[in-house]
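re: ur msg from earlier - yeah i can do the uridine-5'-diphosphate complex, just paste it... oh wait u already did. ok heres what im feeding in:
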Amino acid sequence: MQNEVHLQSRSRLQDYELIVGRSCIEELRILAWELSGKVIQIVNSTFVGGGVAEILEHLIPLLNQLGVDARWDVIQGGEEFFEVTKKFHNALHGRREKILPEDFALFTEITERNLEELRFYGDIFFIHDPQPVALIAKKKEIGRNWVWRCHIDVSNPNRKVWEFLRGFVVNYDAAVFSAPNFAQKLPIRQFMVTPSIDPLSDKNRELDQGTIYSVLAKYGLTSDKPMIVQISRFDRLKDPLGVIEAFEMVRKGIDCQLVLAGGTATDDPESEQVLEEVRKRAEGNPDIHVLLVPPESDLEINALQQAATVIIQKSLKEGFGLTISEALWKGKPVVASAVGGIPLQIKNKFTGLLCYSVEGAAYDLKQLLSNPEYANWLGHNGREHVKQNFLITNQLKDYLLTFLAIGPLGKSSDIIYL
Ligand code: UDP
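and the outut:
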């Protein structure tokens, strides 16, 4: 079965020293050494698309370079299964969804198939998000240590879906959430680990102007007017129609253009439909560019972010919101909704601007477009904030500590802030 991925190391560990300092890398090596001989089996539902795949793709090769035997598998689902898990995802974010008994039954059936087909070889299982959460059933048979990593804000979920998933979660040794206010009360240990970005990846490394211009040309864009950019999967929770509305308000007074760029994820069957809606809404306005970006287009995404005058992320709900750290690391001024993990990254009026409505977003965009000095200052502060808190080296350390902390230390329901 084609469900195990072999990743190439892209960046060398020592290359990070220049950014984060030598002592930080030494610290990682010491922690990793404590895990030698253990296999960490990481499982999620897709190799491409979305923030979780993005993080794993960069994290795993670095764990390997530190000498940790971390390997990545995905569960097999199929369209109907991912329709159900997408409904669960929305419902966990608090959106109204019609969840039928058949949905739970299908979830259980596909889980059982994965329980039969997946190879369980880890000493520590590191299971990401709700799709594979029920693999914990295997623990009865094989034991070992199990960690559930929840990337979603489940603080205000649909009770029916949460109660169903909670039945699996409580059997884990520990759960990891992205922020204290994303979590739920659970009888197992909880760790808080914020996601992170890789400053040396194609998505985030500095590009020369030639590369940026060639990407703009590829998508038929020019930099002759200020460019507002939102990078997101085509998902209603990213509110692309709200972005267009805000842009139209701004455009009345300032000559500028909007780029909505994103792809579709294999575990999100709804995205094609949303893309169509967005294209229709943008029709006839030559200043709005809706770009369908294929998977594995990290360099293109990077170039679009670097070409942006202002970056917007007008999500209605959000997990951590990796695109924010990506934008801030590039020193860009950002306007973003105060949802999910965004307020951890944007300290209002210091590392960016938080908005609460379409009108608010339009007001903030106008402010930044007409005051470049203020915009630059916010971008500069934003980059420092990311450097201190949201680079991959921070996350590596947090996960190593999590793996070391579970197991022999026993159970408690304390929340541990790493
Ligand atoms: N992304 C991408 N291509 C796209 C859309 C998004 O590579 O077409 C990336 C984006 O740069 C970020 C991640 O996918 O790294 C999205 O993570 P985020 O936490 O912002 O949102 P999610 O998609 O997980 O809800």
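cool cool. Residues 50-51, 54, 203, 231-233, 262-263, 293, 301, 319-323, 326 surround uridine-5'-diphosphate (CB under 6 Å). ping me if u need the other ligands too
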